[in-house]
Design goal:
Number of helices of chain A: 31
Largest sheet of chain B: 6 strands, mixed
Largest interface: A-B, 18 and 29 residues
Shape of chain B: elongated
Oligomer: heterodimer
Number of helices of chain B: 8
CATH architecture of the largest domain in chain A: Orthogonal Bundle
CATH superfamily of the largest domain in chain A: MetI-like
Distance between the termini of chain A: 59 Å
Strand content of chain A: under 5%
CATH class of the largest domain in chain A: Mainly Alpha
Number of domains of chain B: 2
Helix content of chain A: over 70%
CATH superfamily of the largest domain in chain B: P-loop containing nucleotide triphosphate hydrolases
Number of strands of chain B: 19
Strand order of the largest sheet of chain A: 1-2
Structural class of chain B: alpha+beta
Radius of gyration of chain A: 27 Å
Strand content of chain B: 25-35%
Number of strands of chain A: 10
CATH class of the largest domain in chain B: Alpha Beta
Structural class of chain A: mainly alpha
Distance between the termini of chain B: 39 Å
Radius of gyration of chain B: 24 Å
Number of domains of chain A: 3
Strand order of the largest sheet of chain B: 6-7-8-3-9-10
CATH topology of the largest domain in chain B: Rossmann fold
Amino acid sequence: MSVSASDRLAGVRAWLAGRALVLTALATAAVLVVMLYVPVGVVFSEALFVGDRLSIGNFRAVLTDPFYLGVLAPVFADPLAIGTHLGALVGWLASISVSLSPAFPWLALEVPDVRLGLFGFTAYQATLSTIASVVLGLPAAYVLANYEFRGRRTLRSLTILPFVLPGIMVAVGFYATFGRTGTLNSLLGLAGLGPYPFLGRYPLAVVIVAHAFYNAPLVARITVAAWESVDVRTVETARSLGASPRRAFRDVVVPQLLPAVLTGALLTFVFTFMTFPIVLALGGLQLATVEVWVYDRIRRLAFAEAATLAVLETIVTLSVTYAYLRYESAQAGMSRAASPPPREQLFPDVRTALTPRRLAILGYGVVAAIVFVGPLASLIVGSVTDGSGFTLRYYAFLLERQVEGASFQTRPWPAIRNSLLFGVATLAVALPMGVVISVLTARAGRLGTVVDALAMLPLAVSGIVFGIGLLQGLVFGIALPGGWRLQVTGAVAIVAAHAVAAYPFVTRNVSPLLADLDPAMVESARALGATRARALLDVELPLVASGVVAGAAFAFAISIGEFSSTVILAAGSETYTMPVAVERYLGRRPGPAIAMGTLLLVVTAASFVVVDRVGGRFERD
Amino acid sequence: MTDLALESVTKRYDGTTALESIDLEIRDGEFFTLVGPSGCGKTTTLRVIAGFEEPTEGTIRFDGRETTGVPPEERDVGVVFQSYALFPHMTVAENVGYGLRFRDPPEGTSEDERIAELLELVDLPGTEERAPTELSGGQQQRVALARALAPEPSLLLLDEPMSALDARLRESLRRQLKRIQSDLEITTVYVTHDQAEALAISDRVAVMSDGRIEQVGTPEEIYREPATRFVAEFVGDNNVFEGRVLERDGEGTSVDVDGDVFRLPPLETDADRLTFCVRPEALSRAVEANRLEVDVETSEFLGESVRVHGRRNGTPIVLRVSDPPTGETITVGFDPEAVHVVDG
């Protein structure tokens, strides 16, 4: 008997079907290696090698330079001269003076200036941003977790939104609020005040508020989740044992919230340490953080220095992330509540609305509205007004540039088209990657944890680091044995960069739902004759559809808003996206930049509406 | 349809041994139950048979064919789980018909007819378009059974299918399952921790403990002639005595248990020490032989009888009596013939 060709084909097809999941997993691993680990490896080797030799020269140059390390530079330059360093420290401490301030009846502390250096300043602004985010985020968490009011669920869902808003767009929004012709000055102008150069005089303050715009909702979100998982019976038990409400809150609720608040604060620190578009757009080189400086070095083609800085930055953020993961695993499984505390009506009637507590909440609400709605509203308002009133000339400029602009100039339509195309392509790559990693890690035990950690690397590596890696590795090309060259350029490189940045969000949305599914469901499907991949398609995916859709929304939004690596990869080419266009306009023409930013807002909002209609929810808890 | 053999099947998970060299022969068309306390390895055994796990050592044969490396979807088994595991995004009909996407329904039957037939079989006709979540727990479990049976598997595997249901429902579902199984003559492996359920439903039972098989036999054999002390204590209420052999003669054996001397029938063993058990229903006030005094601790009214828990010289004793005891002690005796000797 002979096997016919069609039988053989059917056999091959069955073989493929049986191993579809494994094959997708291998493809995912290949993409990750080529597009994530190789670029990051390239950055490290650039920093670690001088010529062909392994050397710490690059690190020594950076660590001993007071420009980077400030007062710590001498310590790295001569680590054994402990006496000298202690002497310097004592001298500094001695010059702190405490005096009774004549203006205010309290003690004033005068601290002599400390040279922070680039890293010190980056950490300093990250610390201030973290404090601001926690201060702004905790009241929101308190209100969302403890009061019931119309729109509470929506508001709770919206706390995820700032996280995926394009950084450059938010930066332009703040520019439109605090700039010389911004909405704040317009409002003050109505009262006959100003204009004040807020941005010129207090750029750091504006940057910190912008960081709080991003991270306060994150802090609120994580804390609300913890607050809602507090089992009300633990509070009731404490009360029955004799604790007052206040005491029960302190002894029972606070310890359960603290890990969440700390988590939010640490994440905020990491994110703001790696901040890039906001500082670039609002502060420029005068407020340079490590990330901005790395970008500047790349533009000046000082790759070794850029790579060294990038590696040092990554070491800082990875150690913070690692410390956080250690802490989180120590906390894991501490509480999983069945019955969350009941919520009070926020405004049951008019009379109670006037209690001090309600008034404080109201006041907070006004501040929150200014910080969160203000910049976005200013963006829209700023795009149709100039100092003297309503105008459409910024949009007219964009139109004109589109029609008449030279090919080397940045035109709006290619930017919009590229953003949308890259967004869709990112979805096509990031969704399967993210889902496969979720499936592999959902129930794989210890090995799953390792895969999970490796796959989550993009969250801890900044876009700039990743951008240089891609540029130096894949765009310039890597020589392979046998005369081959691995080279990935243009749109493909950008989509790959976006997909690698986006898939962790797919995984983060899908994994919890997948882990909650009854494993017997998949086993039933398999016993009934479905292959593993078929069971995934027939059973698991439909049941975690909301997570997949939410992950898709994130992936798309990340792609639309991605700036750091795109700006590097799109340099001098036609593959610029909307955020890159915004940044290019911002330098010389703030008006059109604001108009372009508004378009970006419209596209981002539209994509969220579409996803929401398709049946997703941005919520996952 | 199919007979099943496990040959020295061992399953280890990093360091811990879940199954220790299991040997089992399950006959064609038999209702076979694995029973034991939680963690004894009964569910692991079922999962190894289904192909969800591969044994670390040993082989499993379906009709003599080795199954090593065969994925679950190619084993032709139907599985029912305690959690029902119905697909919540599919209707009842889609659930029952899911297996027919991969295996054709029997000759001359359409898919829809097969689904209707199965729902009829489990006594849920006309529920095709309902969502599984609208059904009660017992109904969901019957849908899960119909789904497992629809592609005519050669082996039916049930993992604690009734543990999530209340007692009365469990009994009626148990009768229904038994009827369906004997009508279809399908080889069935049933896993439960409930020894009463195991005795009630099975053709044969394997009692498991700590990853090993303690005894395999019919429910009567398991109940009347437990092979080990573990089986004696696990299956039904029992009183286990340990004693020293004082003397043997043609008519019987005298055993000293903590100072009381009991007369047992002649025994084949010539060991010095003996472990034997006496069922509570054999301990009676009316029997004059082998009297023992029990300090009453609690009594439970069960309807047809009263179960009395007490102690004799500190060891727990359980009795079945018709009327609640009145005094603080109760004296009962047992017939030498009621004694069953087990391996220590």
